[in-house]
Design a protein that fits this description.
202 residues, alpha/beta, Rossmann fold, globular
Length: 202
Protein backbone atom coordinates (compact mmCIF):
# COMPACT_ATOMS: atom_id res chain seq x y z
CA UNK A 1 0.00 0.00 0.00
CA UNK A 2 1.47 3.36 -1.01
CA UNK A 3 1.84 5.54 2.10
CA UNK A 4 0.32 8.85 3.08
CA UNK A 5 2.68 11.59 4.14
CA UNK A 6 1.29 13.58 7.05
CA UNK A 7 3.02 16.78 8.15
CA UNK A 8 2.16 18.77 11.27
CA UNK A 9 3.65 22.29 11.49
CA UNK A 10 3.75 24.77 14.33
CA UNK A 11 0.43 26.50 13.69
CA UNK A 12 -2.24 26.48 16.35
CA UNK A 13 -4.86 23.68 16.01
CA UNK A 14 -2.50 20.77 16.64
CA UNK A 15 -5.60 18.74 17.46
CA UNK A 16 -6.36 18.55 13.75
CA UNK A 17 -3.02 16.91 12.94
CA UNK A 18 -3.38 14.56 15.87
CA UNK A 19 -6.86 13.46 14.75
CA UNK A 20 -5.73 13.07 11.13
CA UNK A 21 -2.99 10.69 12.27
CA UNK A 22 -5.38 8.75 14.46
CA UNK A 23 -7.98 8.15 11.76
CA UNK A 24 -5.35 7.14 9.19
CA UNK A 25 -3.91 4.53 11.55
CA UNK A 26 -7.38 3.30 12.52
CA UNK A 27 -8.03 2.83 8.80
CA UNK A 28 -4.93 0.59 8.63
CA UNK A 29 -3.10 3.08 6.43
CA UNK A 30 0.66 3.32 5.96
CA UNK A 31 1.68 6.73 7.33
CA UNK A 32 4.93 8.66 7.17
CA UNK A 33 4.80 11.44 9.76
CA UNK A 34 6.82 14.65 10.00
CA UNK A 35 6.36 16.92 13.02
CA UNK A 36 8.08 20.27 12.48
CA UNK A 37 10.40 21.85 15.03
CA UNK A 38 7.75 24.50 15.62
CA UNK A 39 5.07 21.88 16.23
CA UNK A 40 7.24 20.30 18.93
CA UNK A 41 7.39 23.69 20.66
CA UNK A 42 3.65 24.32 20.27
CA UNK A 43 2.78 20.95 21.82
CA UNK A 44 4.97 21.73 24.79
CA UNK A 45 3.68 25.29 25.30
CA UNK A 46 -0.03 24.82 24.50
CA UNK A 47 -0.65 21.24 25.57
CA UNK A 48 2.16 20.61 28.06
CA UNK A 49 3.38 17.48 26.28
CA UNK A 50 6.86 16.86 24.93
CA UNK A 51 6.92 14.89 21.69
CA UNK A 52 10.15 12.88 21.40
CA UNK A 53 12.46 13.96 18.60
CA UNK A 54 13.96 10.50 18.09
CA UNK A 55 11.86 8.77 15.38
CA UNK A 56 11.60 5.42 17.19
CA UNK A 57 10.66 7.02 20.50
CA UNK A 58 8.20 9.28 18.70
CA UNK A 59 6.46 6.30 17.11
CA UNK A 60 6.00 4.74 20.54
CA UNK A 61 4.73 8.07 21.86
CA UNK A 62 2.02 8.31 19.20
CA UNK A 63 1.00 4.69 19.65
CA UNK A 64 0.60 5.21 23.38
CA UNK A 65 -0.97 8.67 23.09
CA UNK A 66 -3.54 7.63 20.49
CA UNK A 67 -4.10 4.17 21.94
CA UNK A 68 -3.83 2.30 18.66
CA UNK A 69 -1.62 -0.46 17.29
CA UNK A 70 -3.25 -0.39 13.87
CA UNK A 71 -1.74 0.69 10.58
CA UNK A 72 1.91 1.35 9.82
CA UNK A 73 3.70 4.41 11.22
CA UNK A 74 7.12 5.76 10.30
CA UNK A 75 8.25 8.97 11.99
CA UNK A 76 10.87 11.29 10.50
CA UNK A 77 12.87 14.08 12.11
CA UNK A 78 11.95 17.47 10.65
CA UNK A 79 15.43 18.13 9.20
CA UNK A 80 16.19 14.63 7.84
CA UNK A 81 16.40 15.44 4.15
CA UNK A 82 17.90 12.01 3.46
CA UNK A 83 14.56 10.37 4.36
CA UNK A 84 12.92 8.18 1.71
CA UNK A 85 10.00 10.60 1.27
CA UNK A 86 12.43 13.34 0.18
CA UNK A 87 12.93 11.46 -3.10
CA UNK A 88 10.55 11.51 -6.03
CA UNK A 89 11.37 7.86 -6.72
CA UNK A 90 9.66 6.88 -3.46
CA UNK A 91 6.01 6.51 -4.36
CA UNK A 92 3.30 7.89 -2.10
CA UNK A 93 -0.47 8.23 -2.23
CA UNK A 94 -0.35 11.89 -1.34
CA UNK A 95 0.65 14.43 1.29
CA UNK A 96 -1.37 16.36 3.85
CA UNK A 97 -0.04 19.35 5.81
CA UNK A 98 -2.34 20.02 8.78
CA UNK A 99 -2.22 22.54 10.32
CA UNK A 100 0.08 24.59 8.12
CA UNK A 101 1.78 27.83 9.10
CA UNK A 102 1.87 30.62 6.56
CA UNK A 103 5.66 30.46 6.77
CA UNK A 104 5.50 26.88 5.48
CA UNK A 105 3.07 27.97 2.77
CA UNK A 106 5.38 30.79 1.69
CA UNK A 107 8.51 28.67 1.53
CA UNK A 108 6.83 25.89 -0.46
CA UNK A 109 5.34 28.46 -2.84
CA UNK A 110 8.83 29.94 -3.34
CA UNK A 111 10.47 26.57 -3.94
CA UNK A 112 12.52 26.84 -0.73
CA UNK A 113 13.15 23.57 1.14
CA UNK A 114 14.66 24.29 4.53
CA UNK A 115 13.28 21.15 6.16
CA UNK A 116 11.83 17.75 5.29
CA UNK A 117 8.24 19.02 5.17
CA UNK A 118 9.03 21.63 2.54
CA UNK A 119 11.21 19.24 0.53
CA UNK A 120 8.55 16.52 0.55
CA UNK A 121 5.85 19.00 -0.47
CA UNK A 122 8.07 20.13 -3.36
CA UNK A 123 8.46 16.47 -4.39
CA UNK A 124 4.69 16.00 -4.46
CA UNK A 125 4.25 19.07 -6.65
CA UNK A 126 6.97 18.10 -9.10
CA UNK A 127 5.68 14.52 -9.31
CA UNK A 128 2.06 15.74 -9.72
CA UNK A 129 0.91 13.82 -6.67
CA UNK A 130 -1.90 14.99 -4.38
CA UNK A 131 -0.81 17.71 -1.96
CA UNK A 132 -3.40 19.19 0.38
CA UNK A 133 -2.53 22.11 2.64
CA UNK A 134 -4.65 23.31 5.57
CA UNK A 135 -3.51 26.85 6.44
CA UNK A 136 -4.45 27.80 9.99
CA UNK A 137 -4.27 31.58 10.04
CA UNK A 138 -6.67 34.49 9.78
CA UNK A 139 -7.14 37.01 8.37
CA UNK A 140 -5.14 36.40 5.21
CA UNK A 141 -3.07 39.29 3.90
CA UNK A 142 -2.20 39.82 0.25
CA UNK A 143 1.10 37.90 0.58
CA UNK A 144 -0.77 34.89 2.03
CA UNK A 145 -3.31 35.00 -0.78
CA UNK A 146 -0.65 35.19 -3.47
CA UNK A 147 1.32 32.31 -1.97
CA UNK A 148 -1.80 30.15 -1.70
CA UNK A 149 -2.74 31.04 -5.28
CA UNK A 150 0.74 30.03 -6.48
CA UNK A 151 0.39 26.68 -4.74
CA UNK A 152 -3.07 26.11 -6.20
CA UNK A 153 -1.75 26.94 -9.67
CA UNK A 154 1.10 24.46 -9.10
CA UNK A 155 -1.38 21.67 -8.33
CA UNK A 156 -1.93 21.78 -4.56
CA UNK A 157 -5.36 21.82 -2.96
CA UNK A 158 -5.97 24.45 -0.31
CA UNK A 159 -8.37 23.48 2.47
CA UNK A 160 -8.57 25.94 5.36
CA UNK A 161 -10.05 24.13 8.37
CA UNK A 162 -13.47 25.78 8.27
CA UNK A 163 -16.28 23.77 9.91
CA UNK A 164 -19.77 23.31 8.54
CA UNK A 165 -22.65 23.94 10.92
CA UNK A 166 -25.42 21.99 9.19
CA UNK A 167 -24.40 18.86 11.12
CA UNK A 168 -25.42 20.64 14.35
CA UNK A 169 -22.12 19.98 16.18
CA UNK A 170 -22.41 19.37 19.91
CA UNK A 171 -18.71 19.47 20.80
CA UNK A 172 -15.25 20.51 19.62
CA UNK A 173 -14.69 16.86 18.67
CA UNK A 174 -17.67 17.06 16.30
CA UNK A 175 -16.19 20.15 14.64
CA UNK A 176 -12.76 18.51 14.34
CA UNK A 177 -14.25 15.35 12.82
CA UNK A 178 -16.24 17.34 10.25
CA UNK A 179 -13.03 19.02 9.07
CA UNK A 180 -11.13 15.72 8.98
CA UNK A 181 -13.91 14.01 6.99
CA UNK A 182 -13.96 16.77 4.36
CA UNK A 183 -10.17 16.76 4.09
CA UNK A 184 -9.92 13.04 3.43
CA UNK A 185 -12.80 13.24 0.94
CA UNK A 186 -10.20 14.92 -1.29
CA UNK A 187 -8.12 11.74 -1.14
CA UNK A 188 -11.12 9.49 -1.81
CA UNK A 189 -10.86 8.01 1.66
CA UNK A 190 -13.82 7.42 3.97
CA UNK A 191 -12.34 7.71 7.45
CA UNK A 192 -15.23 8.38 9.84
CA UNK A 193 -18.93 7.55 9.79
CA UNK A 194 -20.20 11.11 9.96
CA UNK A 195 -23.50 12.81 9.02
CA UNK A 196 -23.43 14.49 5.62
CA UNK A 197 -25.64 17.01 3.91
CA UNK A 198 -29.04 15.57 3.08
CA UNK A 199 -31.56 17.39 0.95
CA UNK A 200 -34.82 17.84 2.78
CA UNK A 201 -37.86 16.17 1.27
CA UNK A 202 -40.29 18.61 -0.27
Amino acid sequence: MEPFVLAITGASAQRLGERALQVLLEQEQNVHLIVSKGAHLVWESEIGIQIPVNPQLQEKFWRDHLGTSKGSLTCHKWNDQSACIASGSYKTRGMLIIPSTMGTVGRIASGISLDLIERTADVHLKESRPLLICPREMPWNLIHLRNLTSLAEAGAKIAPPIPGWYTDPKSVDDIVDFIIVRIFDSFGLEVIDFPRWKQEKQ
